[in-house]
Design a protein that fits this description.
Layout lengths: L6 E4 L6 E3 L3 H11 L6 H16 L2 H4 L3 H17 L5 H10 L6 E3 L3 H10 L3 E6 L4 H8 L8 E4 H4 L6 H11 L6 E5 L2 H10 L3 E5 L8 E2 L4 H5 L2
Parallel strand pairs: 1-4, 1-6, 4-5, 6-7, 7-8
Antiparallel strand pairs: 2-3
Helix pairs in contact: 1-2, 2-4, 4-5
């Protein structure tokens, strides 16, 4: 890379961490414990359909972080719930995903980030997430690798808005050209970072960009 970054920011869900074994599996198993008759795969599909729609509703995303997820959970299970009170189910799911048990780190992420930190890179998380992320990263024993953790619900701005990237720049006292952001969303992570004047790498598959990696260890060779 011709313009070596001083700061590398990493997206969380879908990049650094992923739900385990899947959102649908955790949601459906928990729902069955509350008496709902649901299947893992169907709930998984329903979740991503609902999540995509709710995420585009600025009235919801700009509100309280817990209210956002309450809307998602209620919409996912409403077709299966009839007159069931979904609040207890929501509260249980909220707590389950606040812990590391139902999250897994991307393969090679911890070792790669440790090596980058040893080489002098300053590392941060930059995520469209809520405050539970701090507990999750702590449970997964990876939070100490990051100098700072930036969470959209705490800042009040979400990627791809340029404002959230500017907040990171202020915190580090660096120009946009000194940052590299890595994330799995083409619009929020890749395009958002580039619009802010940052370098960016898209993470995951399928390959749709020249500036893309499919695993964390690829970073070590790329940043030589």
């Amino acid at each position: 890379m011709s313009n070596t970054p001083h700061v590398i920011t990493v997206d969380a869900a879908g990049t650094l961490i992923r739900p385990w074994p899947s959102v649908g599996a955790v949601y459906a198993q928990t729902a069955r414990e509350f008496g709902l008759v649901v299947e893992d795969d169907a709930i998984d599909r329903r979740f991503y359909e609902v999540f995509g729609k709710v995420q585009k509703d600025h009235k919801i995303t700009s509100g309280e972080e817990k209210d956002f997820w309450r809307q998602v959970v209620f919409a996912v299970f409403k077709p299966h719930a009839e007159k069931t009170d979904l609040d207890p189910l929501f509260e249980e799911l909220w707590e389950l995903f606040a812990r590391g048990k139902h999250w897994r780190l991307a393969d090679g992420a911890k070792d790669t980030l440790f090596q980058l930190k040893e080489k002098g890179y300053r590392l941060a998380v930059l995520s469209n997430n809520d405050s539970r992320l701090r507990c999750v990263l702590n449970d997964l024993a990876i939070d100490s690798l990051f100098e700072k953790i930036f969470i959209s619900s705490e800042i009040g701005i979400e990627k791809p808005e340029t404002g959230i990237f500017r907040e990171v720049e202020k915190a580090f006292g660096k120009e946009p050209s000194r940052f590299l952001h890595i994330g799995d969303s083409h619009s929020r992570d890749f395009e958002g970072a580039r619009k802010a004047g940052w370098d960016a790498l898209l993470f995951g598959k399928p390959i749709i960009e020249e500036r893309q990696i499919t695993s964390f260890p690829e970073l070590l060779g790329l940043l030589q």
